[in-house]
Specification:
Elements: H1 2-19, H2 35-43, E1 52-55, E2 61-65, E3 77-83, E4 89-102, E5 106-113, E6 128-134, E7 141-148, E8 156-163, H3 176-203, H4 214-232, H5 235-263
Parallel strand pairs: 6-8
Antiparallel strand pairs: 1-2, 2-3, 3-4, 4-5, 5-6, 7-8
Bound molecules: 2-acetamido-2-deoxy-beta-D-glucopyranose (2 copies).
Amino acid sequence: MLLSLRIIITPLYVLLAGVQAEFITDNCKLISQSKSEQNALHLLEPLTNQTFTTEGKEKDFSYIFQVCGDAGGIKDAGLVQQDKKGGKLVRIGNYTNTRAIRGSDWVLLFYEGGEKYDSHCSQEARRAMIMISCSTSTTNAFSVVLEDNQKQQDCYYLFELDSNAVCPVIPSKVSAGSIFLIIVFCCLAVYLTGGFLYQRLVVGAKGVEQFPNYTFWSEIGNLSADGCDFVCRSRGNREERPTYRGVATEPLGEEQEERDDHLLPM
Ligand SMILES: *[C@@H]1O[C@H](CO)[C@@H](O)[C@H](O)[C@H]1NC(C)=O
Ligand SMILES: *[C@@H]1O[C@H](CO)[C@@H](O)[C@H](O)[C@H]1NC(C)=O
């Protein structure tokens, strides 16, 4: 019963979500368009319009991160590095050069096309990788893991963000109480239809007699009516009534006899 409800509601919900205003995560531009990467981006929708900051290991830099929005106010930069002394901002990656890879409870986000290295890494463009993992905590924890730049190519900055946005959706569990009610309801339905068919087809009952165990239930009904009668009616009334009747009927009878006598012809 509940399952069929979910089957009806889920497409409705998807339809409504489709009608809903466009995703902020669509501001991100995927390097290679793919449906699965698009879906991975949409999963990050709750993280948009937020600025995440963290300090570097040596506390000489801080990092500013936004999901598909300008970090540190720099156009198209999703992740920037800020020099603590001079306050100078360095573009690490563009959200307009994105990849998004999704696992069961994580999304790996790439921001590429940052400012070129001066001397390291064959002077290639900087890039950021942000590992967004499921966390049941309601607060998002952002931190830098490492800057891997001691090599000729494919250097990267690696960050971590713990968030409940990427947690797998657990199908809602029906509580024990409602399971009990469902079972009772189903048993009742089976009893009523089964009993009805038995009474009608096997016993050949007609009218209210088709109701299963009709006599038993009507007896229960009568008994409870009696019980209610006993409990609900006030005691005074009950004791008064017989005396009233006893006194009232006797003189009335005599009077009537007397009146009859008058009517008899003398
Ligand atoms: C997110 O930010 C954009 C641009 O600043 C703004 O137009 C939009 O209303 C914001 N959305 C939410 C949900 O705060
Ligand atoms: C990153 O964004 C900036 C600003 O829009 C742009 O000048 C730069 O070319 C972009 N990088 C890449 C690789 O597209």
